Amino acid sequence: DIVVTQSPLSLPVTPGEPASISCRFSQSLLHVNGYHYLDWYVQKPGQSPQLLIYLSSNRASGVPDRFSGSGSGTDFTLKISRVEAEDVGVYYCMQTRQGRTFGQGTKVEIK
Amino acid sequence: QVQLQESGPGLVKPSETLSLSCTVSGGSISGYYWSWIRQAPGKGLEWIGYIYYSGNTNYSPSLKSRLTLLVDTSKNQFSLRLTSVTDADTAVYYCARLGTSDNFYYYIDVWGKGTTVTVSS
Fold first, then answer.
1. Which chain B residue has the Cα nearest residue A101?
2. Residue A8, Cβ neighbours under 10 Å: how many?
3. What mean pLDDT, rounded, does chain A reach?
4. Sign of the CA dihedral with A83 first, then A8, A11, and B38 last
C-alpha cells in the first residue's frame, strides 16, 4: 500500500500571502505514461470536497490560477500564490497510482 | 448538470449490514465510474471503492472483505453494502462520480452532499 504524509496539518495564513502544502508518498506516483497520478481536493466548511488539481499540476475547470500543483516522484506541493478569505477549508492530496489514498488533510484558516 | 443523492438508514446496529444507495440525476450512469468515500467524525476522507457502470469494481484493501458495490443502470443508481459494521464505520458517506476530460485519467468531479450513518445499538 502507498502511504502518504501530508504537512502541515494546520496552516494559519494571512490574506494576500502565499501558502504551501506538501504531500510525501512512500512510493513514486510516476506512471509509465510520464504522468504523476496525484490530485488535490478542498473541502470548504459545510460542503462536499471539490477538485482543484489533477495529474499533479492540471487545474480543474473553474479553479483560479492562484492555485498551482507541482512535484515529482514521491514529493508534491500545492501552492496558493495569494490566499483569499474564500480559500479556507481542508485541503487533501490523493494518490491514484495504486488504488486511491487520501492524505490526512491540511486545515487552512485565516490568521 | 449531474447531481448525486445518497439515501439509506441513518442508524445501523453493530454487526449488521450498512446499505446505501446513490441516485444519479441530470445524466446517465452509463460510461462512468462511480465511487464511495467516507469521513468519520472530525477525521479526513477515506476512499471506499468504485464501480464501473458495467459492474467492474475496485475496493479499498481495508474494506474489501466486507464491501460490495453494485450498479443498477435501469434505475440510474449505484449502491454500497458493508457487512459486520462497528463503531469505526460511523461516518458521513459520500457518493461521487469519476469523470474525465480525455477518457484517459479519471478524477472525482461530482460529489453528493453526503449522508450520515451512525453505528450504535
1. B47
2. 12
3. 97
4. positive
